[in-house]
Each structure stands twice: as C-alpha cells, then as structure tokens.
Design goal:
single chain, mainly alpha, 16 helices, 416 residues
C-alpha cells in the first residue's frame, strides 16, 4: 500500500508541473507574447526571439544538468533538489503576470526562469522513477506519469480557455487580463499538486554520502560521462534521443506559433492543443502497455516515423481541420515516445546513480531543445516562409531514427 501511495504521489507531480508545459509553454505564452508583449515586433522577429529564449534556457540546463545530478547523488537529495527547482518555476510563473505590454525582453527573462525551474526539477523527477517503480513494470509507471500529466494539463488548459473566452463572467475587462490571470492559476496548481511528492515519496539513500566539493563534483561528472559514453548502446541511444526528442520538444513549443504564422485563429489553435492533451492521456498509458508487449524499441521507432509524417503533413497543411488532425496524431504518439524513452534509458543505467545518469539524459534532451526552436526561428527569418521552418525539423527525426536502429532493445533482456 505504501509503495502504491508513493507511486501515485510521484505520478501526481507530472499532473502538477505539466500545466506549465501546456498553459504556458505550448498554450497561452506564444499567443500573448506575439500579440501583447511583442506587439512592436514583426511576426518573424517575435518567432526568432521566442525560439531564442527557449534555446537559451535549454542551454542552461545542458550546462547544469550533469553537475546537479552528481550533487544530488553525492548527498542523497534528489527530492530536495526537485522541490527547489519547482519553487523557482512557480515564482517565475507568478512574475510573468504583472509584466506590462511591450516589455517583451523582461517577460522573456521570467519565461526562461520558469523553463529552467520546470526542466531542472524534471532531472530529479526522472531519477526518482526507479525508486518508485520497484515491484512494478517500469514502462507502465513511466507511462502513468506522462498520462497523468496530459490529463492534468488538459483539464487546467480547458478551464483557462473557458476563462479567456468569457472574461466578463469572472470580472475581467479583457481577454488579455484573463489570460494573464491564467499564469497565476498555473503557478498555484503546480505548487499545490507537488505536495504529495514532497510528503510521501521516499528516495533510496546512497550507501554513503560525500561532501559535494566543487572538485569532487567535476571529477565525478567527468567520470560519469566517461563511463556512459564508453558503452556503445548507451552512447548511441543518448545521441539518437538527443536528435529525435529535439523534434518532439520543438513541435510542443512552437506549434502554436507556427499556426499563428499560417493565419489560423488563436482559439482554434488552443482547441487543437486541448485535443492533443486529452488524446495524450490514454494514449501515453496505452502506448506504454504496447511497448511492454511488442518491445520498447519497436514502439519508439514507430512513434518517430509517425512524427516524420507529422512534419511533412504540417508543411502542406492548409486548413484548421488539418491542424486538428495533426493534433490527434501528435496526441497518439507524443506521450508514448516520451515515456518509453525514459524507461528505455532507465534499463541501461546503474540503479544507485540515477540522478547522475538522468542528469546526462536531461542534458542530451535539452541540448536538443537548443537546436530545434532556434532552427525553426532562423529558417523562418531567412526564408520568410514558416512552412520551411516546420519541414526542417524532419532532419532531426530521420537522424535520430537511423541511430536508434543500432541500439539493442534492453526490454528483451528482462523486465524491471
């Protein structure tokens, strides 16, 4: 019973923090940034600066993730580090609310702080997967977390959409005021639903704890890199993951901006995002069960191929109905690819160094997020054609897929 309580509490953190990804990153921030904070910039300029902000915040995680993971494993403080970064993200989200129109540079600072808190906490959240999944199948536990995230994110996004479409009912004078208030709701949701993890999830303590001096941190981090990249299959998987998850994260972050550039109504784009969330809830869980039955690698390869077709379809897309179709397709594979990537990697790593190894995993994933948004923004700026920007993302899926084909499926060696 205690183990199940810990498992549910762990999964609820995905319910808690996913609202930042849906309401802020993928939902309202790109819209209100372009129309409110960056109203004095051109469409191409706002896309460039938004992509650059996403890329810079990801670069910070690339630099910090392995070092933070080493500190957490040295001291046995993965949960504490998660909560510190969670609070950073919550505070940054609260600070977005009062930023005035036209102050695009200031709001991007708070936005990047929020992303840093969001992604930083996920290093330690991922590392706790092995602790809470003992006695359960790791693919299913990972899928449960992502499924809860899609459901929680979808529910709050739906509520915020209703708020933005009916601002007068709640006493707001404009849609902008209602959307800004949604950032406050998101921050408090993230904080409140993080409490079960804070109270009831226990992490496995290291056999011994060390004082994490600067010298020891860098020495152990260098050793972790050496060990990880010495193993052929771990090395190939991380590089493949670096490439294909870049495409996944870029589509998450830039889809609404892309739809706006094509002239679609913001309400239709938010509706499409809601479709993705509610399709993604059962799909992430079901996809993880499929991975358990047919193999994690086969399921990942299938999801990446589908993403390749999604980018190609996005290039030719002409109507809102087609955008809705893409939303369904993304919802069917997005959570599954994310969940199975996490459980695939968890099978490859030592169980007593999860934060260190997931620090490298998150570093690779966020290093990818530097390239994708910046690539889209740069291609749009150079070609003055947003369609080429979405097509450029296919390169990442193809390269990641080709490398993944050379990695052995660890799920065939026995489940955990």
């Amino acid at each position: 019973m205690l183990k199940d309580k810990q498992l549910i509490s762990w999964a609820l953190y995905d319910w808690a923090n996913s609202v930042f990804a849906t309401v802020v990153i993928a939902g309202f921030f790109p819209i209100i940034f372009k129309q409110y904070w960056a109203q004095n910039l051109t469409s191409d300029q706002s896309t460039f600066w938004l992509g650059s902000a996403n890329s810079f915040s990801s670069l910070m995680i690339v630099i910090l993730a392995p070092l933070l993971g080493t500190v957490a494993d040295f001291r046995g403080i993965r949960k504490r580090m998660l909560l510190i970064f969670m609070l950073m993200g919550v505070i940054a989200t609260l600070l977005i609310y009062p930023v005035a129109a036209g102050q695009w540079w200031l709001v991007l600072i708070f936005y990047m702080m929020g992303i840093l808190g969001f992604m930083g906490a996920n290093i330690f959240y991922d590392a706790l997967l092995i602790d809470v999944s003992r006695g359960h199948h790791i693919d299913k536990v990972s899928g449960l977390g992502f499924g809860m995230g899609y459901l929680g994110g979808g529910i709050l996004l739906a509520a915020c959409v209703y708020l933005s479409q009916n601002p007068e009912i709640f006493g707001f004078s404009s849609t902008v005021d209602a959307i800004l208030f949604s950032f406050l709701i998101t921050a408090f949701w993230w904080l409140i639903f993080s409490m079960p993890l804070a109270l009831w999830v226990d992490e496995a303590k290291p056999d011994y704890q060390q004082q994490a001096s600067v010298k020891a941190i860098f020495k152990q981090t260098a050793k972790t890199f050496s060990v990880i990249f010495k193993d052929r299959h771990t090395r190939l998987f991380l590089i493949a993951y670096w490439l294909y998850i870049d495409g996944v994260d870029t589509i998450i972050r830039m889809a609404v901006d892309y739809g706006l550039a094509l002239g679609f109504d913001s309400g239709d784009l938010i509706a499409a995002l809601l479709i993705t969330q509610f399709v993604g809830f059962p799909a992430a869980i079901i996809y993880s069960y499929i991975g358990d039955k047919v193999g994690v690698k086969i399921s990942l390869v299938t999801g990446i191929i589908i993403y390749g077709f999604i980018t190609l379809f996005g290039f030719y897309m002409q109507s809102v109905e087609q955008f809705y179709f893409l939303a369904v397709m993304i919802g069917l594979v997005q959570g599954g690819v994310q969940a199975l990537s996490r459980s695939f990697y968890a099978r490859l790593i030592p169980k007593n160094k999860t934060a260190e190894y997931f620090g490298v995993y998150n570093m690779m994933g966020k290093a990818a997020a530097i390239i994708g948004p910046l690539l889209m923004g740069t291609v749009a700026l150079i070609t003055n054609n947003h369609r080429y920007s979405i097509l450029s993302i296919m390169i990442l899926f193809i390269a990641g897929l080709l490398l993944l084909l050379y990695v052995e499926d660890p799920s065939k060696e026995g489940s955990q």
